[in-house]
Amino acid sequence: MIAAMPVLTDKTYAQQDSLNDFCISSEEYRLYNLVNEYRNSLNIPVIPLSKSLSQVARQHITDLIINKPDTGSCSFHSWSDKGKWQACCFARASRDKLCMQTKPGELTTYPGKGYEVVYWESREATAAKAIEQWKETSAARSVLTNVLEWEDYDWKALGVGIEGGFAIIWLGEETDPEKEIRTCEGESITNQPLVQTKKKTGPQIITAGTNRFYLIYGNYGSIKEAKEMATKYFNEGFSKASVITKDGKFRISLNDYPSKELAQQGKKELPAKYQDAWIMPYFLSNDTSLR
To answer: pTM for the full model?
Structure first.
């Protein structure tokens, strides 16, 4: 059954104009935590919740539902001329990055640029459906996990919005000065995520099969050499760098995955200078199900 779109009016804009009255729904808070749980599973730092960017997300959903600026060549990242912002068309072919990046500053006191990820379907959007699609889509996954062109970005603010068929997140590199956040059910919440990233102090040493697929980038004749190089890559941002001991050799892994397909995708997303990495499965000796 197709869910009916919510009835939104100009009053909705007025209700959202004041950050003092702004709140996030329980489903939006769930989306926020699912994003961070995903990052946490990859040993990537969690991102603080942003009240300002959440308001931008909600405003944009309202504009998309009521005014439908995504027409012709204009994508979901476009904004209409019906609100207190600069109208713009984020074209699918030639993208106007400022159309997206300047919106937090136009709508809130947020001090930095904003970057948006959009999920849409004809039914009611949910946090679970949105995160699963983003994890399966290379462009969205890259933003969420800071790979490819996003590897030099350091997300310090995450905003969330869900309504109708839309689920939207906004990310920024500046800390949000707005600290007081509450759910629409009246619960006061912290601007820190529920999950916390496990702290690692260096690369892991793997001495037995794990039934995972590793991106190998170098063989060394001694454990000392391998640990030194793995530590170098760990400090450069490969938080899952490890040393694999197998067949009397010491191999360095930049990352690991539960399937060959995900490892192949991970290899494609490595920075250009690491494209010589190759995929090595490391099975448990008595498990042939993955061979």
So the answer is: 0.66
